[in-house]
Structure formats: C-alpha cells, structure tokens
C-alpha cells in the first residue's frame, strides 16, 4: 500500500490533467457507471465545524475510495492553520485491497478547482478575459488555476476580508506562472465591473456582493456554500441565472445559495437547468440577454 503526501500528490497531477479526469468522471456519472452516495456529515457545533465523509465508485475507471474532509472555518484566525484538512483512502475495485492512503487536502482543492474548470469550459464565453475572485485560501488558488487553464484570462481581481491574505495569494499565483495582471481590490462592486467570470471560494453566510453588480453574460462559480445556512450569491442573482449543479441530490440537501433563494420564494425546485455531467456532453449556448450563469 502506498502512502502519498500532499507534495507527492501535487507532483503527480497538473490542473489540466485534473480537469480532463474530472470531465471523464462526469461522463461516467451521466452514463450511470458511477456510485456517488450523498456525503455523511458530523457537525461539531462548539467549533462551528463539520467533518464530511464521501465514498465513490467509478466502474469504467475501476476506482473505489472514500474521502474524509474536516472543515474548521476558524482555523486561519485561531491557529494560523488551513480551514480544510482531508484524507483519501483508495481500494482495488476487484479485490477490495487497500491500495493507497493519501493526503487529500491539496487534492480536495485541486478537485474543486477542476470542477469549476469543467463548468467554466462548458458554460463561460470563449472571450472571457477578466476574473473576479472572492476568497484567498487554498480553494481560491486552485479556482484561479482552473479558470486560467480553460480561458485566456488577462486580469484577476481578488477580494478578501483580510487584505494580507489576498496579497499572499497574489505572490503564490505568480509562482504558479499565472500569466495575468493580478491585483487586490477592496470593493466588491469594483471587482465585478467588467468581470467575465466570478469565483466565490469562501465560507460566507451572507452574499458577497449586490445582485445589481453582476453583468449580463457573467459566469459564476460558487463553491463555498456546502450547508443550507451558507450563501455567497444573492438570491436575486440565483433567480436571474441559469443554474447548473454538480449533482441534483447533493444540491437539494446542501447548496445554501439555491435553497435560500427557494425559501425566499424567488425560485422553485425546477429552476435548476441540469447537472454539469450533461454539459460535459454538449456545451451550453451563451446566456440570453440580461441573464447570467451560475454553477
């Protein structure tokens, strides 16, 4: 059995490779060649934290495994530590023999970024050049890597409540070889002005921007809301958008942005256009006038 560190994983796969593998996994999901149960949750209310348990099986790839993720949102301020830790166990799909145990912290960020990369590839306009990013953690970094892997981004604007963390992210992105002008912007409206794609990678419980600041044709990746109490996107924006989700059952249980818009009476259960797996088979046409896209 192999034991892989985070650095081992980082050296083993690039973002472009991760996007291709993720797109293939979505194709298998669409073809019903995958088992993807709803993730189990253990709440830790005293820490405002949660642990998530996520098993999966891909028949075509013969991949069987499970991931455990702990989300402790106060770690950065309390302990100067990441808010997300993860571990992955991989098994032989024919015998059940353990094959590998690997650090899943970086892989979680890579996978989440890759999913946004697939969504951006199939939903965002081809002439997408300006990215507005909310958040400055590990997830934010891979969001930028993924979007830049599928679209010719020339300008990146980062909004974060802790300016120093945004500045640190800018330096990291430069070491990643991101070929774009990158700046920290302290005002959400200014960051969104002229933005073609927006990535939200935070633990926000209230929307990060005003609905009026999202321009028609904008593509939004909102990846931070994994709990009905969380929301990064205004309900009015959700109502205006063509909404695509990674998996319907999970979205109905956990996607706070969608659930809160529904609770407000702005959308119904039929508002979601479909699953990302379907788009991996055919690109979505450009958003109609006055609308935007939300993943």
Topology overview:
Layout: E1 2-4, H1 6-12, H2 15-30, E2 34-35, E3 40-44, E4 49-58, E5 63-71, H3 75-79, E6 84-92, E7 98-103, H4 105-123, E8 130-134, H5 138-150, E9 155-159, H6 163-175, E10 181-184, H7 188-192, E11 197-200, E12 219-222, H8 235-240, E13 241-245, H9 248-254, H10 256-263, E14 272-275, H11 276-279, E15 292-294
Parallel strand pairs: 1-7, 8-9, 8-11, 9-10, 11-12, 12-15, 13-14, 13-15
Antiparallel strand pairs: 2-4, 3-4, 4-5, 5-6, 6-7
Helix pairs in contact: 2-4, 4-5
Describe the structure.
This protein is an alpha/beta fold. The protein folds into 2 domains: 2-107, ornithine cyclodeaminase, domain 1 (2-Layer Sandwich); 113-294, Rossmann fold (3-Layer(aba) Sandwich), CATH 3.40.50. 35% of the residues lie in helices and 26% in strands. The chain contains 11 helices and 15 strands. The chain has an 8-stranded parallel β-sheet with strand order 10-9-8-11-12-15-13-14. α2 (15-30) packs across α4 (105-123) and α4 (105-123) packs parallel to α5.
The CATH homologous superfamily of the largest domain is termed NAD(P)-binding Rossmann-like Domain
Q: Could you please say which CATH topology of the largest domain applies here?
A: Rossmann fold
Number of domain modules: 2
Shape field:
globular
Radius of gyration of CA atoms, rounded to a whole number: 18 Å
Structural class determined from secondary elements: alpha/beta
Q: Helical segment tally?
A: 11
How much strand? 25-35%
CATH second-level architecture of the largest domain:
3-Layer(aba) Sandwich
Total DSSP E strands: 15
Q: Spatial order of the strands in the main sheet?
A: 10-9-8-11-12-15-13-14
Major sheet description: 8 strands, parallel
């Amino acid at each position: 059995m192999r034991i892989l560190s985070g650095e081992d994983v980082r050296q083993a796969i690039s973002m472009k490779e991760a996007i291709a593998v993720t797109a293939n996994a979505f194709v298998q999901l669409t073809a019903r060649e995958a088992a993807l149960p709803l993730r189990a949750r253990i709440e830790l209310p005293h820490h405002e934290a949660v642990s998530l348990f996520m098993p999966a099986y891909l028949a075509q790839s013969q991949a069987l495994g499970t991931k455990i993720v702990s989300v402790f949102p106060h770690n950065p301020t309390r302990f100067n530590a990441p808010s997300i830790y993860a571990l992955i166990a991989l098994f032989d799909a024919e015998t059940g023999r353990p094959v590998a145990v690997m650090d899943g912290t970086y892989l979680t960020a890579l996978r989440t970024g890759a999913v946004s990369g697939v969504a951006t590839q199939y939903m965002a306009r081809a002439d997408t050049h300006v990215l507005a990013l909310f958040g400055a953690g590990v997830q934010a970094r891979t969001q930028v890597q993924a979007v830049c892997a599928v679209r010719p981004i020339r300008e990146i604007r980062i909004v974060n409540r802790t300016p120093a963390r945004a500045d640190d992210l800018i330096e990291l992105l430069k070491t990643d070889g991101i070929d774009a002008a990158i700046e920290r912007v302290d005002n959400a409206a200014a960051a969104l002005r002229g933005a073609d794609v927006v990535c939200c990678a935070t633990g926000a419980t209230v929307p990060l921007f005003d609905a009026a600041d999202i321009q028609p044709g904008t593509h939004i990746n909102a990846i931070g809301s994994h709990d009905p109490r969380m929301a990064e996107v205004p309900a009015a924006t959700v109502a205006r958008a063509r909404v695509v989700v990674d998996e319907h059952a999970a979205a109905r249980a956990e996607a706070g942005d969608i659930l809160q818009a529904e609770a407000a009476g702005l959308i119904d259960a039929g508002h979601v256009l479909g699953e990302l797996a379907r788009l991996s088979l055919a690109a979505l046409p450009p958003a109609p006038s006055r609308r935007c896209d939300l993943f």
